[in-house]
Write a structure and sequence with these properties.
Elements (H helix, E strand, L loop, with lengths): L2 H9 L3 H11 L5 H14 L8 H10 L4 H25 L1 H11 L3 H11 L3 H10 L4 H10 L4 H26 L1 H9 L1 H19 L4
Helix pairs in contact: 1-12, 2-4, 3-5, 4-5, 4-10, 5-9, 5-10, 7-9, 8-9, 8-10
Length: 208
């Protein structure tokens, strides 16, 4: 995701996310909702620009007692997607590089991740897995630069599970009250989510 794409995303009304939120909440009690969450979590780890947290929150607030189950699905899907991203980087990078750069992430972001991998690859992946820093850059770059697959998997399991279970756990504990809060302040939260997503891409440039 380059700066132009990020700016375009910001200019879109958060009401787009409101419609997505309303649509996904209706899936909360349907079997297809869990599959949709799993699928988005998988593809977000390599190509999809929208983090699965959006769907995770929407599903969980629609059925708070199932929030931890949704967090489990999201975590498994995301780690699996990370392995797929690793495979892309390891076995097909020369063929797909022109698609990923600059349409999915920038050359500068990719080069910065390469620099981080010369230090502590485990910590770099763990940080990206837990924070808004774009995880997909790290999964693909791990394959390109020969980071151990087990390093990727372990860091991803820890980071992604911590992130998604934090979200699911809060909704599970607070249930309907957090649903009311999200619905009341959704527009502000939508802007905050977009801001965090963009900040994640910017942060790659400054990580040491």
């Amino acid at each position: 995701m380059n700066s132009t794409t990020a700016e375009t995303t910001v200019k879109r009304s958060p009401h787009v996310l409101r419609r997505l939120y309303n649509w996904t909440v209706r899936w909360a009690e349907r079997p297809g909702g869990a599959w949709a969450l799993f699928g988005i979590a998988v593809i977000e780890s390599s190509v999809f620009p929208v983090p699965p947290d959006v769907l995770l929150i929407a599903l969980a607030v629609g059925a708070p007692r199932r929030a931890l189950w949704f967090a489990t699905i999201c975590s498994i899907g995301s780690v699996l997607g990370g392995v797929i991203g690793y495979a892309i980087g390891w076995g097909a990078w020369h063929a797909v590089r022109g698609f990923f750069i600059p349409y999915i992430f920038s050359q500068a972001a990719f080069d910065k991740v390469a620099e981080l991998y010369q230090g502590n690859a485990f910590l770099a992946i763990l940080t990206a897995a837990f924070t808004p820093i774009p995880y997909k850059v790290f999964t693909i770059a791990a394959g390109v630069f020969g980071v151990s697959l087990w390093t990727l998997v372990l860091a991803s399991v820890l980071g992604r599970s911590a992130r998604f279970f934090a979200v699911g756990g809060l909704i599970y504990i607070f249930g309907p009250s957090i649903k009311v809060f999200i619905e009341k302040y959704f527009d502000w939260l939508a802007w905050a989510l977009l801001g965090l997503l963009i900040a994640g891409f910017v942060a790659i440039k400054y990580l040491k």
